Amino acid sequence: MGLLDELEQEARKRSLSNDDSLRRKAEREEAYRVRLEPALDALRTFLADLSQKLKALQPRTPLRYHVPGYGDIVGYIEHDYQIKDTKQASSREVLLDFPCTIATDECPAVEIEGASRVRAVAGFFQRHHIGGMLAPRKDASGDVVAATFRAKGRIPLSAHFHADAESGQLRMSFSNFEDLGTTVKSLPAAQVDEELYEQIGRYLLREPNTLLREDLPEAYRKQLRSKVQQQEIKRRWEARISDSRDTELAELRRAYSATGKLVGLFDRLKNVGGVGTAIGKLRGLLRRRK
Q1: Domain count, the chain
Q2: Across the strands, what pairs with 148?
Q3: Could you give the CA distance from residue 174 to residue 96 in angstroms, rounded to a whole number?
Q4: Which of 171, 148, 146, 176 is nearest to 160 (CA)?
Q5: Are residues 126 and 229 in the same domain?
Q6: Residue 147 belongs to what domain range?
Q7: Spatial CA neighbour of 63 closest among 134, 128, 147, 148
Q8: CA atoms within a 13 Å half-sphere pointing along the CA-CB vector of 140
Q9: What digits encode the pLDDT tens for the residues 187-242?
Q10: What residues does 85 pair with on adjacent strands?
């Protein structure tokens, strides 16, 4: 192939690549316009209806957060919902905010000692705007070396839904629902439907749901099952080896104990034999004197 042919072939490849890139971009823009934008309209309506029903019913929905070094913080959803809807030329986002009020009487009062431990728990509370440090004690240098903690205040909850023409996907983020942090998941436009809204509602109410469950490929599932089986076989063999080793050690201890007893007995017999020989020699001397 000549130089001009090679250049022509490279130009065709680039043209095809550019065409493919433009095609994918057009597909994402269409997915946003045809599927995602109307879907976010429907999602906003769903969240508004859900909020109104919850405000009327006022269900007592508990949340629990584990804090290292302190324990569990217990709170209850406060049905004061705020919905924000922002529209741009090629993007859309819906934001749902509401608080969780900490049930201080259901939270432990924990006395923590040690400057580093106090700093760790106090820092965690401060990062998440949680109050509750009581009766701090300081050393001569002014550092807090002990304090009692009992959580109080509010924890903000938020559900953020964002879609744009550039990605052609729905991006969901949930803050402070399962723990004090943010969980993110993205879905293609084809998966945004009424079933998704149902799962979102159940997730917000902390009811059983499949919203954040990941469907693993079958090949990966087989790999995980195989790994679990191998680990189980390994644990069984380790248990057998451990039991066998313990049995052998017990037998060796008994053997050494028995050997020690025999050696002691032989030593005593030798000593007895020596005494008998000495007595026999003394008797012989007495006979000769007579």
Answers
A1: 2
A2: 111, 134
A3: 10
A4: 171
A5: no
A6: 15-215
A7: 128
A8: 0
A9: 999 999 999 999 999 999 999 999 987 654 555 446 656 666 676 676 666 666 76
A10: 94
